[in-house]
Each structure stands twice: as C-alpha cells, then as structure tokens.
Design goal:
290 residues; Rossmann fold; 36% helix; alpha/beta
Length: 290
C-alpha cells in the first residue's frame, strides 16, 4: 500500500489551491481541467471528476461542492471538460475521459499526487462515462488519443464512484418517452448517433450479454425521488454487477431528486461523507490503478 493510500483520512481538513489548466484540444475547442490541490506534505490520492449534463450540457464546474469536499479531505481532485453533443456525439467524450485518465496519471506527480491511487467520479451522464471507462479500460475505440511522452501508461482506474449514473441509457431513454420529456429524448438521440450505439455503450447491456469487462469496485448514490434515472435502473444494474462478481455499493437517498447534491443540506453532506468513506475503503484495501 502506498503512503498516499495508507495515510488518507476522510475526516482530515486541508486548505486547497484551485486553478485551471489546458487539458485537451479538440477540432472545435480547447478543453480545460480544474485542479483542486490539498496544501500539505502529500503525496495525495487522485480523483478524476467527470461532469454530468445528459451528454449535451455542463462542464468541469458542474460538481464544484463535491470536488471541494473531497479535496479538503486530502485528495488531489481534477475535473475535466468533455465534448458535448451535438458538437461531438458518442464516443468523443469517452475517448477524452480515457485520455484524461492517462493524462492525469502522468501529470499528477507534479501536483503532489500518487498515480497508482487514481479513481474516477462521475455524475449522471458522467457516471455513464465513468462506468464505461472502468469496465472497458483497454477498449481500442476509447484509447484512440495518444499521450505524448508517456506511451506506457494504461487507462485503468482503482474504483468508480458515481451519483445518479445513467447505468442503462436505453432504459433512461424509455423513461424520458414515458414522461414525455422532449429535451431528454433529444439529448439521447443527439448523442447516440448512430442510434445503435446506445446498446453497445450500455453498461447494463454489456453485463447482460456477457461481455468480458473489468469490474473495479463501484459506488452508486441514487436519489429515491429521481424520475429521470429511476431507482429501479440502478437496483437492476447493481444487482447484475454483483452477480457477475463485482463489488457494488448502492445507497438510495430517500425523497431526493436527480440532482439533489446541487443544493446544500444534510443529504448533500451525507453524499460527500459517503464518497470519502468509499474512497478510504478502496485505498486502505490497496486498490490500484495499474
């Protein structure tokens, strides 16, 4: 177990330094990364944050309160921009996130991070991307962007932490149809183009069809009142993940909607504490991103 993993205390309190850097340049724009660096001796565990927004909206600033909470406990947190549909549909954002894993493993050392401890945090559609990364770390389609100067770094992560992940994007699409939510329907049809990719890039379907996948430990925090990604979707996915041999901790936050963590309150505080406790468990168990 590395010193960063052994010494992590989820109840610790650090001052943090926050700044932005260039991350990845697409044909359309420059993607940025926001660094949340604990101020202390280190080295620190490392967490890559992938934003939500139904694949069509938001950026690296979508999850600031949770990123700050994790960083203040002694984790080097890095949140990245990803391409949005319709500027680029699937698999562009997954390819960028895959590059982000390798990029952060290379860069985190200069920011006082331990690259063997790298885990990924994803919210909503970012949770979908996080699941794809963790389950398909060597997938050629996702590993298309070379990392200059560091060809030997792989895309594995030590764990997957999620909030309201779209674990079954097709079931989520059918829920949007049921609720007659035109914007949610459009978000899916714009991102998954051609439409058949909604089945290929579907974590639930990957498990159901027996695809050979890796199964890092996973945390799912789900709102009980979420009518976007309904709890039944997560319950089915987490049960299947465990049945296939993976470790999946799922907690339903009663009466909470899809984005309950956007507002301060006891349930948001509980989610922050749960994330830190899950990370501590994985680090102390010696989980490595190698």
């Amino acid at each position: 177990m590395s010193a960063a993993a052994k010494n992590y205390n989820p109840n610790a309190q650090f001052e943090i330094k926050v700044w932005d850097v260039d991350f990845f340049k697409t044909p359309k724009r420059q993607l940025k990364a926001r660094i949340y660096q604990p101020q202390g001796a280190g080295p620190f565990p490392v967490l890559l944050d992938l934003h939500g927004g139904a694949w069509n909206n938001k950026d690296r600033l979508a999850n600031v309160p949770m990123d700050e909470a994790a960083a203040k406990s002694g984790i080097l947190v890095v949140a990245i921009d990803m391409s949005l549909a319709p500027e680029a549909g699937y698999p562009a954002c997954v390819q960028e996130a895959c590059y982000g894993v390798r990029w952060l493993k290379a860069k985190c050392i200069e920011w006082n991070g331990d690259n063997q401890t790298l885990g990924v945090l994803g919210s909503s559609s970012g949770g979908h991307v996080a699941q794809l990364l963790g389950m398909r770390p060597n997938f050629p389609l996702y590993n298309v962007h070379a990392l200059p100067g560091a060809p030997g770094i792989n895309s594995r992560v030590a764990y997957i932490a999620t909030r309201s992940p779209i674990s079954d994007p097709f079931a989520r699409f059918k829920q949007a149809e049921k609720m007659q939510r035109a914007n949610m329907i459009k978000n899916s049809t714009t991102f998954f183009n051609p439409w058949e990719t909604i089945h290929d890039a579907n974590p639930q379907a990957m498990l159901d069809r027996g695809e050979k996948v890796e199964m890092p430990p996973m945390l799912i925090m789900q709102g009980g009142a979420d009518d976007n990604v309904i709890p039944a979707i997560q319950e089915k996915f987490s049960a299947t993940y465990r049945a296939k041999g993976g470790e999946c901790e799922m907690t339903v936050f009663a009466n909470c909607p899809h984005e309950w963590i956007a507002e301060p309150g006891p349930d948001t505080d509980r989610a922050h504490a749960m994330l830190k406790a899950f990370i501590a468990k994985q680090l102390h168990a010696g989980r490595k991103a190698v």
